[in-house]
Each structure stands twice: as structure tokens, then as C-alpha cells.
Design a protein that fits this description.
The structure is a single chain. It contains nine helices and twelve strands. With about 290 residues, it is of the alpha/beta class. The termini are close together.
């Protein structure tokens, strides 16, 4: 598993933070996560990112689309902003040769799943046409609050089928979100069944990255609150997720609070130790 995390600093600084924290993979924003305005990236900065990644040997790069995006919104202004921003995000991710753009599908805001899906499909088709063989678009599962879409494998499968199983549409599974939405990933049999269903309905080859987070909230709470490794309600049983043979080789990315500034060297040490323990227990060498 390519262990790493989300680092601040964007295109200019995220790689240096990842290197300093001992990460093998990195996730970053390519714009401010708190604003719609999309920057005009200097081509020199894009080239510098690609070169520096190679120098540092960062195995995987993931771009996370901003959380303001809502591809299921019935509100036309929000919907159009979301479509435009996701397209710009994909363009920037392709320019730095990222492996994936991870995004939250959004919320139907009470209009219902089917109505939301009708909005999501054309938005996704537009973004997917901007992807390439290197840079895929990856749906992230959600904790399931309110009208959010993607709270279950069934909902993710429905989206996947609605865009005709597009060759560049993948998945990102978040351990905290799985737990909060009711999947008890502390139990090997539950995780086995989930991954088996994913393989049957979508295909494990579509699983491109993982978010490895503990949870502040209990199983099935539908509340999305990440906790540091070992300090939440998943605790050391996060090893079940980390050590599963079918998840090895993927980027495993922290999105935890750390000391208040996000993933850091201490959290990376805890993640590596838990992964080593998990893979040793399963009889598989860390990958």
C-alpha cells in the first residue's frame, strides 16, 4: 500500500510536505477549498510539480475536488458552478499527471435520489470526457447525512451504470465514511462481503484509492467526523481495512486532524505501524 495523506500547499508546496512527513503518496487541492474562484496555474509550476514528484519518488498523486461542488443540486446556479469547477479541476489534475480526481457527488437537497441522478449523469459525462488514461475521476462514498448521494455501494453502482460504466470512472473508499454509513469494517466478514459485492457490481480494478481515517462518531451515525489513527471508535481495528489483501497496492491516504493542521509525521508513523501489524497478521508483506 502506498501510504500517504492530504497535504496543504497545493501544486507549489504539497509535495514538499509529503516528503517531509515520509509519505509515499499525496492528496492535494488545486484551488482554495473555501472558494469557487479557480486559479490560472502557471505552466512552469505544473512542469515543476511533475519533475519534483519524479525526483521525490512519490508513487501516487490524487487531487481532491473542493467540497462546495454539488453535482446533484436542483439549484441551477450551484449546479453550473459545480460542473464548471469539476471540469477545471480535472484539467489541472491532468496537467500535473495526477492518478485520480476524487470528488463527492453531492446532495439532492430533498428532491430524491432519482432526481439527483438525472443531474449527476450529464455533469459526470462532461468531466469524464476531460479525463485521460492516466487521470481518472473517482467517486467517494459518503457518511450518508441528509440527502447526500453515494452513501451505499448500491447508490455508487447506480451512478456507475447510469454513465454506461465509463472506462475512466473509478472509486475511492473512505474508512470513516463506510463506518458512519453503517458498514462495520472492524469485522473481516463485513469487509469481505463489501469488497465482493464491489467486485461483482463494478469491479475491483475500478477502486483507485483509499482514504484511511478513524471516526469520532459511532457505527451508522451518518456523521462525517474524522479522527486521528487509533484515537477514534474504529481504533486499532482499522487494521482490518488496512490489511485486507484486496486493498494492497493502492494509495492509502490520511485525512485526519493531526495536531490541528492535518496529517503529519506522527500520524504517518502510526499508520505505518498499524499497516505493518495488519499485513503481518494477514500473512502478507506490506506493499
Amino acid at each position: 500500500m502506498l501510504l500517504g495523506g492530504h497535504c496543504s500547499g497545493g501544486i507549489k508546496k504539497a509535495l514538499e510536505s509529503a516528503h517531509a512527513f515520509g509519505m509515499d503518496s499525496v492528496q492535494l487541492f488545486v484551488q482554495s477549498p473555501r472558494a469557487w474562484r479557480f486559479p490560472e496555474h502557471d505552466p512552469a509550476d505544473l512542469e515543476a510539480f511533475r519533475a519534483r514528484r519524479e525526483e521525490l519518488g512519490i508513487g501516487a498523486v490524487t487531487v481532491h475536488a473542493i467540497y462546495l461542488i454539488n453535482l446533484a443540486s436542483p439549484k441551477d446556479d450551484l449546479y453550473e458552478q459545480s460542473v464548471t469547477t469539476l471540469s477545471s479541476t480535472v484539467d489541472a489534475a491532468c496537467a500535473i499527471e495526477a492518478d485520480a480526481v476524487v470528488f463527492h457527488v453531492g446532495s439532492h437537497l430533498g428532491s430524491g435520489f432519482e432526481a439527483g441522478l438525472e443531474r449527476v449523469v450529464p455533469a459526470l459525462r462532461q468531466a469524464l470526457e476531460r479525463c485521460n488514461d492516466t487521470t481518472w475521476l473517482c467517486m467517494e462514498n459518503t457518511a450518508g447525512a441528509g440527502g447526500t448521494i453515494g452513501r451505499s455501494l448500491e447508490e455508487l453502482t447506480a451512478i456507475y451504470q447510469a454513465v454506461d460504466r465509463h472506462e475512466r470512472l473509478g472509486l475511492c473508499l473512505d474508512s470513516c465514511h463506510l463506518f458512519a454509513s453503517g458498514y462495520d469494517i472492524t469485522k473481516p466478514a463485513v469487509l469481505d462481503e463489501l469488497l465482493g459485492q464491489l467486485d461483482r457490481e463494478i469491479g475491483l480494478k475500478r477502486l483507485r484509492c483509499l482514504h484511511v481515517n478513524d471516526s469520532k462518531e459511532p457505527l451508522g451515525s451518518n456523521r462525517d467526523r474524522h479522527e486521528n489513527i487509533g484515537d477514534g471508535l474504529i481504533g486499532d481495528k482499522l487494521a482490518v481495512f488496512l490489511g485486507h489483501p484486496k486493498l494492497q497496492g493502492l494509495p492509502g491516504l490520511l485525512e485526519v486532524p493531526g495536531d490541528g493542521h492535518g496529517p503529519d509525521a506522527e500520524q504517518m508513523q502510526k499508520l505505518r505501524a498499524l499497516h505493518k501489524k495488519a499485513t503481518k497478521r494477514s500473512g502478507r508483506k506490506p506493499a
